[in-house]
Amino acid sequence: MGIKVIIAGYRGKMGSTTTSMVLADPELELVGLLDPHTQVDQYQGIPVFKQKEDFKNLQADVWVDFTKPELAFEHTLFALENGFAPVVGTTGFSNQEIDHLVALSAQKEIGGLIAPNFAIGAILLMEFAAKAAQYFPNLEIIELHHDQKKDAPSGTALKTAQVIAENRSNLEIKPSEEEELIAGARGADYQGIHIHSVRLPGLIAHQEVLFGGPGEGLTIRHDSYDRQSFMQGVNIGIKAVVKEKQLVYGLENLL
Ligand code: NAP
């Protein structure tokens, strides 16, 4: 018997790619789909529900979520409370919300994953950037996404900044006397790390970390050209969470 999977947001850009991936994997069994605006009650023989409460009596192992930032916490909480291991790509969690969900999952002994980025290349970028930051403490992040993206900065950029802040060398960074002539010109500030968000049609998900040192520069860049780039990570996540007893933040914790 395969791992029984629910997909919330199955008609969206990520949700539809995930639906195809799950249907194509004989180790996974798609048992339910969530979409509030659906006109159908079945998709390829799989029941489609309009509200999350309809899943309460469904037998399932994993709740995959690619919906909207404002639903991310509520949906993940619902999944844990109903015994589904969440695999969540939806962005928009606060640190407090993640802490709360990790504690709840540990108490219920249910695995789970919240991943700001499922692309393996993006995970490697974070690792490489954390290493580079030990030698190049002066750096800035530029994240570039399609123009439909609702939140900024991206979850990946925030996570990258967080990982870098934890690993950055203690080299003294001189306070700057710069002045923004237009508010926001220097981007968002996460513990002294500037993050710039670009939104343009045609893009999918891209990120650069630019490091500058005396007389040299280093740029690390990752590009997701297609949503297929996330599917290997989602697949790994689904298969890993059913063996875990606590939710983790970041796919790197399950690789
Ligand atoms: P999208 O195309 O807008 O898809 C979101 C889907 O959720 C839509 O089909 C939407 O339906 C549906 N939805 C709205 N309310 C819902 C509800 N109450 N219950 C269930 N479904 C609901 O967005 P996307 O590009 O797929 O991205 C979805 C999320 O994943 C975003 O937060 C995005 O930042 C994130 N993301 C994460 C990764 C990663 O690697 N972690 C990669 C890409 C994207 P309607 O359109 O009918 O409202």
UniProtKB/TrEMBL annotation:
It catalyses: (S)-2,3,4,5-tetrahydrodipicolinate + NAD(+) + H2O = (2S,4S)-4-hydroxy-2,3,4,5-tetrahydrodipicolinate + NADH + H(+); (S)-2,3,4,5-tetrahydrodipicolinate + NADP(+) + H2O = (2S,4S)-4-hydroxy-2,3,4,5-tetrahydrodipicolinate + NADPH + H(+). GO terms for cellular component: cytosol. It is found in: Cytoplasm. The keyword Membrane does not apply. Pathway: Amino-acid biosynthesis; L-lysine biosynthesis via DAP pathway; (S)-tetrahydrodipicolinate from L-aspartate: step 4/4. (S)-2,3,4,5-tetrahydrodipicolinate binds at residues 146, 155-156. Its EC number is 1.17.1.8. Residues 121-255 form the Dihydrodipicolinate reductase C-terminal domain. PANTHER family: 4-HYDROXY-TETRAHYDRODIPICOLINATE REDUCTASE 1, CHLOROPLASTIC-RELATED (PTHR20836:SF0), DIHYDRODIPICOLINATE REDUCTASE (PTHR20836). Belongs to the DapB family. Catalyzes the conversion of 4-hydroxy-tetrahydrodipicolinate (HTPA) to tetrahydrodipicolinate. This is 4-hydroxy-tetrahydrodipicolinate reductase.
